[in-house]
Fold this protein.
Amino acid sequence: MVRARVGQLEADPRAPVARTLRSVDDRARDPFPRRTADPALLLPWLGELLRNGPGLLQSYLPGGPIDPRTRERVILAVTEVNGCRYCAWIHGSWADYLGDQEDDLDATEALLTYARACADAGKPLDTAPLAGVLPPEALGALRATVAQIEVSNLVGNTVDGLLARATRKRPLDPLRAAGELATLVVALPLAIPMLALAGTLRAVRSIAPAMPEVRMPPAGEANLLVHLLARAVPGYLANAGLRLGILRLPVSVPLGIRAGRTAATLRLGRGEVSVENGISPDALVIVEGDIEPLLQLATGSLVREISTLRVKRP
């Protein structure tokens, strides 16, 4: 009798709907609160990655359309919504390593709002509202970044979901457990290097010296370039690796910088940073360029263009 009723259900055109409703009921009864990796959730994000693959690569290259600190903030915003503890630890390590810097707050908040909305919806959303804030290449990098961390979050949550099944904190469900185990096997070769890198970044941050106060001429004597450099340098040295490599130099290295008709000398090393007016006679190199890129660096612009700078021997 039971078998006959099952056959009737499968023959009924409403059967797919019934199966979907049963799947929804199964999820509602599952005490594990986070989304895990299944085809219905993964496919839209994988499609988004395929469409915006170049944007993902660009977001990790120097001079990318979205600076690394903003990228990590977007990643952490998505991770906060999805609750993946592994991604939170890995990318929290990245964010701590890169340090803080002032950004274009309106643009940054717009990116974070979009990222959180995608995570809440569980699918890619239209980026049209951001078209007036970001150029097309930055939009592609944003979409790829959100898609990449969504996939990572789903995989990380799947690991915890499998652990919850193994400890009987959620229904065992052998079929779904087998799928989750397969996801873990596929992701493990990628996850281990990422966890190791995160541990390395945390170690570097722990031994990097703190950013010292930038020494400059007395108030009223410093030229505009000195002021810009004094503001821009802490942003560069917010990166723990750069602080470790530059501030621990055994000697102070003088760098001459000329922008337009204004010049300054930046000294780095021996745990100190100083900026002075003009090009010092002992400057090792002179960096020349327009004032606008330095203004962007000093104000922490989200999308930066510094290709006009050029280096020459004094």
DSSP finds twelve helices and five strands in the chain. Residues 174-207 form the longest helix (34 residues). Strands lie at 253-259, 262-269, 272-277, 285-289, 310-312.
